Amino acid sequence: MSNDSTKKTLLVALGVCFVASILVSTAAVELKPIQELNKELDLRKNILSAGDLYHDGIDINSIFKEKISAQIIDLATGEFIPESDYDDVLNIEKFDVEEIASSDKWGKDIPTSEDIAGIKIMPKAMAIYTVKDDSNNVEKYILPIYGKGLWSTLYGFIALAKDMTTVKGFTFYQHGETPGLGGEVDNPKWKNSWVGKQIFDQASNLKIEVIKGAVDRGSESAKYQIDGLSGATITTRGVNNLVRFWLSGNGYGPFLSKLKGESNDK
Ligand SMILES: Cc1cc2nc3c(=O)[nH]c(=O)nc-3n(C[C@H](O)[C@H](O)[C@H](O)COP(=O)(O)O)c2cc1C
What we know:
Helices cover 32% and strands 20% of the residues. It is an alpha+beta fold. It has one domain (50-259). A five-stranded antiparallel β-sheet has the order 1-4-5-6-7. The longest helix has 45 residues, at 6-50. It binds flavin mononucleotide.
């Protein structure tokens, strides 16, 4: 066959495609476990970060094991779900909110009128991460939160003190908002501005809010308010809504009330 023949050109092109596809699929299969491990490590890093337990150079897995106790709660009752009830879908070792939310057993639809986080479906149970001090006393709780921004669903954590109302940390670990606009949710200064804010007032009304513009530091409500991100009103509104959704009766409300020793009707 001549080197210039159409048949040979096609055969060589097909051969190259075949070898390349084998290489790409082998790499994808081989790298999957490593990607999963890295994803898990990144999640743990962000949990530690929300709990103010992360700094460069630490051994993430060992600090996570030492400091964090991961459990699953039933959102409706606020009770811990015993490990004997875990199954292939609901499991603290691989807690995947999307998979859980879309399962028949552990997921549910959110009525449109209540779906301020824009997520349509949600898990009936959520992972929560408890940070304990050296004497085994609870220091804080780290709660997963997520909801729609402008371009993407933002996934993150909010850490609360054991009074269940003072914010101790706030971070997103995954989103697709625009760098410099909605992406300013990752700005350390902004994340830090959440620390010390109050979720509830004395009467246990949900008060925390991300406002448009800057907080009037001298005002009565400043302790409940966080500055909005400039040029990113839609992301700001999304963050406000998702935080308020997850801290309301539809989210962690019953759990928070229970730990505050109150009735679950707030
Ligand atoms: C390329 C591009 C990317 C944008 N990314 C975001 C974003 O990530 N989050 C956001 O809220 N607004 C984003 N905006 C701006 C919104 O369209 C909208 O104008 C803005 O939320 C209004 O905010 P402001 O009232 O603070 O100006 C983007 C606009 C453009 C043109």
